[in-house]
Each structure stands twice: as structure tokens, then as C-alpha cells.
Amino acid sequence: MILSPPRPVGEAPSVFESLKAILFASWLNVLLVFIPVSWALHFALPQSFANRDTIIFVFSFLAIIPLAKLLGFATEELSLRVGQTLAGLLNATLGNAVELIVAIIALIKCELRVVQASLVGSILSNLLLVLGMCFFAGGMKYSEQGFGISAVQLNSSLLAISVIAVLLPAAFHFAADPSLTDAQEAHDILAVSHGVAIILLFIYAAYLFFQLYSHTALYQDKGEHSIVSTDYATPKFGMKAIRNFRHRHDAADIEASTTGSTRAPNGADSVESSQTMTSGSPAHVRYEDSAHTHVPTITEKEHDEEEKPSLSVAVTVGLLVVVTVLVAITAEWLVDSIDGMTDGGHISKEFVGMILLPIVGNAAEHVTAVTVSVKDKLNLSLGVAVGSSIQIALFVIPFIVVLGWILGKPMTLLFDPYESVAMFLAVLTVNYVVQDGKSNWLEGFILMCLYIILGVTFWFYPGISSNFLLPNIVC
Questions:
Q1: Which sequence spans correspond to the domains of the chain?
Q2: Helix (H) or strand (E) holding 368
Q3: Rounded to the nearest 10 degrees, how much is the dihedral formed by the CA atoms of 381, 386, 390, 396?
Q4: Which residues, listed in sequence order, are joined to residue 9 by a DSSP beta bridge?
Q5: Mean pLDDT in order along the chain per 10 residues (475 residues)
Q6: Which of 25, 47, 182, 272 meets the CB 3.0–4.6 Å disulfide criterion with 472?
Q7: C-beta of residue 74 within 8 angstroms of C-beta of residue 323
Q8: Angstrom distance (rounded) from CA 367 to CA 370
Q9: Which segments carry the region annotation Disordered (predicted)?
Q10: Looking at the domain that runs over 121-229+362-474, which CATH code has it been given?
């Protein structure tokens, strides 16, 4: 039932109400003013103007952030009208629209290093930063959160295949016969990349069939395959924990004043404290020491409750089209400014591609995944974060390779070795974290810290030129 929403959908609002909802969808909409500003700077600033490209990059960067959020808002509205599995796929797909647009524009301009770095960086951002924040945010509310371990193990296998596809061309390059000419090796690497890319696309098609048709139950939040989440015995974080702390001590003070109990030096209650409270005294609030289990079942009331859409279907589709066009134009100015900004040596292309561009592209799915994780819908969070990484690895990367083949651009799967190793370590770490089917805030904290570590290393990593890998590959 991938097209059946989990709850009934209410009546669609009018066009005026929909436009009002778009306007007040997020405080990030105040950044929309940077769209015309970035366009004006691109056309108005002369080429000789100092730091022209840096200024255009910054304003274009800021302009894409609210566009990505609006893209996520429209995606959520579409998700209300379909099943949970298809909703996760829509969030991952349209959440990757910004990365795909930036990658296509960079490919057309033959910025191959930016293309490769931005795609690998998007995988790292989703696996470490987005997933880490989901685990951390959910861990603030739940002692342990469970999710569908079967689907996660399958996703880990798919990510492992994508890592192998990226590492093998590098192994081929460094293990090739030294007598092989550069031209012949470049031809062979391109041929290998094209063949592997087509196979990866077939794997992704099979994954979609598996997820949306043959094994849809594995990707639902509720079911026997999902491990039950566990609450804290008493809340440890947030305002609820503070209120319970005050409540507990207030009750203890009332009991002490009523019974005249005293505390022995060793911390135990004296004999007086064990006396029964008088009938007129307030009842003492008791807190259980053992954790109680949170069973994520949908009650009949929740099931029958209507979801109130904020946008009509026509306005939602129109918003998607308009935002996509605006992203494409703004992304072109963004990509145009990268060379000029990095030529000064203050920031490398690797850091721009691996860290900055993915932060912009993942803004929408980042917010969506973290929001639903707090609601104990961790399977949906994994569908957005990990599913987005799988989509980048098994669809976007091979699609860009095939598109480069069509356009005559020498886009290969021979990535920077350091970027490939970082991707391998990220997949390995996430595989260890999710293998038990449970998460907590510390695991999320670990993933976020690993992302910061990689960010620090990429700030100082100068990168290697494409000519170092394959001297004969030029646009």
C-alpha cells in the first residue's frame, strides 16, 4: 500500500491559504532575499573586482539554503498523501535534487573534482551528520530507540557495494602494469567506470522494486521486524526532566515536614521516616526505578485522525517546479564562483565540495529526519538519511558517469583516494553503530564527532589534481 497514506488526509486548502503557508513555512524564508542579490552581484560586479567570486559564492550559498527548505516543505506535503515507504523515498529523492543539479552544472562546466567531492561529501553528510543528529535528538527523549534491523543490514550491504565500486577503479589504477601507456589506461578506466555505472543503476532499480513492492513491510515503523524503543526510567534531558526533579524533591520535602523524618548521616531514612503518613497529608509521588517500555503502536484514535495539508496538490507541484528552476540558476552562479574563490589558496576545492555544498543540499532532509526521529519514527529517519546516501551512491553517481559519457565528459569512478578512504571509514563506522538495531544519544554523538574530524582534515587537505591520476583525461 505504498500509495495509501497512514492517516486520512483532510480537505486541501485554497490557493491563497497555500501561498500564505509557503510564506510562513520557515524563518529561513528571510534568506530568500539573497536570491535576487546573488543574481545582481553575478551580473553587476566586474571581473576585476576584488574577491568578486567569494562574495558571489557566499550570497549564492545563502540563497540556496531557503530553497532547499522549501523543497523539503513541498516534499513533506506530497508525503502526506502516500504511504510511509514512498514518503521516505520522496524525501530522499527530492532532498537530493540540489546535489544532483549542482553536480550536473559542475559536470557541464567540466569541474570534475567538484562533482566527485560534492557527491562523496553528500554521502558523508547524510551518514554521519544527519544520522548522528537523528540518533542524538532521539536519544534525548528515549533511552534506546529501535528500528528495523533487517532493512538496515540490507542498506549496509548496498552501501558496501557502492564503496567497492569507488575503490576498485583506484586499485585498478595503482596496480596497473607500468608498461601500460597513459592513454590506454585512461581508456580502460573510462570503460570500467561506464560498465560499473550501468550495473549500479540496475542494482538501484532492483532496490526500488524490493523497497516499494516485494518487501514493503521491512521499511515500516511498526512491525515485528522493528525493535521496541525504551523510555528512560525518569526523563534525563529537557524541561520534563527538570519538572520531575523539582516534583520529586518537593514531594520529599512535604513528606519530611509531615512525618518529621530525618536523614541519617549515612543517607538512609531514620525510623521516623518510615512511619505512615497521616490521612490528611498529601500523597507522596512514587517513581519507578525500572525503565518502562515504550510500545510504538498506533491507536485507533491516531489512525482515524485526519492529516491537515498545508498546500493543495497543484500548488505543491508548482512550488517544486519553481524552486527547482531557482536552484538551477543560483547553483550555476555558485559553481562559476568556485574557481575564483579557491584560487587564492585560503580554501580548497575539496573542502568546498566535501563540506560546504553538502550542507546546503542536505538542509531539507536534515530537518525532516531529525524531526521524525524525536517522534520515535526512526525507520523513517533512516529511510531519509541512509536512503539518501544509497540513492547518491547507486543512482546519482552512476547517472552522472553515464551523463558524462553521453556529453563527452571524462567522468570516471576513479575518485580522489583520500575521499574514497573517508567514504569507506564512514560506511564502516555506521555499519558498526546500527548492527544491533538500536541507537542512543552517544552513538549519535560519535557519528557527529567523526564528521567534524573529517571536516578538519579536509580543511587542510590540498587534494590532488585529476592529471595526477590520469594525465590523459582532460575535458
A1: 1-110+310-344, 121-229+362-474
A2: helix 363-374
A3: 70
A4: 307
A5: 59 82 84 90 83 88 86 77 65 74 88 88 91 90 82 87 88 72 78 93 90 74 64 63 58 55 45 39 39 44 62 84 87 85 79 86 73 80 83 92 91 89 92 86 93 92 65 59
A6: 182
A7: yes
A8: 5
A9: 254-285
A10: 1.20.1420.30
Report pLDDT for 24: 84
- The whole-number pLDDT of residue 250 equals 59
pTM of the model: 0.77
How many CA atoms does the CB half-sphere of 142 hold within 13 Å? 25
Number of CB atoms found within 10 A of residue 343's CB: 10
- Amino acid in the structure at residue 347: I
Helices (H), 216-362: 238-259, 300-304, 313-342, 349-351, 357-361
Residue ranges of alpha helices (H) inside 375-416 are 378-391, 397-407
All cell numbers assigned to 271: 525510623
Q: How far is CA 95 from CA 87, 113, 137, 295, in A?
A: 12, 22, 20, 30
The confidence score (pLDDT) of residue 295 equals 45
Looking at residue 203, its pLDDT comes to 94
**Integer Cα distance of 248 and 250 in angstroms:** 6
Q: CB neighbours of 22 closer than 8 A, spacing ≥ 6?
A: 70, 73, 311, 315, 319
Write phi, then psi, for 343 (nearest 5 degrees). Answer: -65, -25
DSSP per-residue string spanning 443-470: HHHHHHHHHHHHHHHHHH-----HHHH-
For residues 18 and 34, give the distance between their C-alpha atoms in angstroms, rounded to a whole number: 23
Check residue 263 and report its DSSP letter.
Answer: B
The pLDDT score that the predictor gives to residue 139 is: 87
Strand partners, 142: 231
Give the C-alpha distances (Å, rounded to integers) separating 232 from 141, 222, 258, 434, 440: 8, 21, 30, 20, 11
Q: How far apart are alpha carbons 322 and 327 in whole angstroms?
A: 9
- DSSP, res 221: S
